[in-house]
Every structure is written in structure tokens, then in C-alpha cells.
Amino acid sequence: MSPVWDGRFGTELRRLRMSAGVSLRQLAPLVLSSRGHLHDLETGRRQPTIDLAARLDTALGADGLLSGMRHPVAAPADPERLAYVARHPRRIDPATLHALADSLTAHRRLEDTLGSTSLLPTVRAQLDMMTTLVAETTGALRPQVVDVAAQWAQFGGWLYAASDQRRLAGVGTAPRWSGARKPATRT
Q: Which of 57, 65, 66, 179 lies 20 to 30 Å from 84, alpha-carbon distance?
């Protein structure tokens, strides 16, 4: 999973830049970026790469402050298992389902610390995987898969609403899942 950046990264970048008396146009070539990209970082529309954060630290004399605003996402207990199930969703097992629930708990804790906007990309990826799992899972585990997926959908909707991106929240996903019947079997 990609790192999550502290939700205050953009505000801190702007504060450092203003304190240094440097415009976005002046800063951009110093850090091998564009003015527009830096503006998007300051407004929270984009997240930096690790390398760009380090170049910004150097250019603004921030002593690693910006680079230190990166938080790694806790790796699941068995990343190979999750990768396998992502490729073969019909092979989900109870251990994988438990790992997905644990991952949701970890993301909720991160949201308490970092805010909603920072988590949107990783949660969106999880929602995509959960949608596939709901569509492909049959058998005894299906109700549990739908339950965990609905919890991810609820959390994702909360993040989008909290970051004022309600139109992207995918309203209706969890109700469709919970009301969905077992997929038709092929004959």
C-alpha cells in the first residue's frame, strides 16, 4: 500500500514557502515540479511523492519536517494472501476476511490521526476490491463478505463526505450489496 500523508501537509508546505518568501513559480524549478502541482499539494488535492517531499524539505530548509509527515499504512498480516484473493476472488477464506476487517480497523485509526482526505486513495482501492469480492463470492462466506464490504463502503462514504466530496461517495453501494441475492449459478 502507498504511504498516507498527514492531512496538514499542504498547510505546512504553504507556511514554510511563505516564511521563505518564495512563490510557487519560484519554488517549482527548485524542486523539479510545476507551479500547478505544488498548488495542488498546498490545497490537498494531491499527495507528494517521497522524493518530492525530500526536495521540498531541502529547498525550504525544513529539516525533514515535510518528509516526516508521511505515515506508512500498516501492512496486512499476509499480503500474499490478499494479493492472491484479489486475483482470484472466488477463493476467499476466513483468514483473508479477517485480514480485511483488521485493515479496516487500522484505516479507521489512521483517519482519527490524519483526517479523511489523506486516506481516500487507499480506501478507494479497498472499495474496488470489496466490490469484486461481493460480486464473485458464493457459498457460506458470502454473508460475511457482504458485511465487511458494507463496513468498508460506510467508512468510504464517511471519508468522502468528511472531505466534502459527497458526489464521489458512491451512495447506494452497500444497500445494493446487502440486498443482493446470491449470484445465479451457471448451468
A: 179
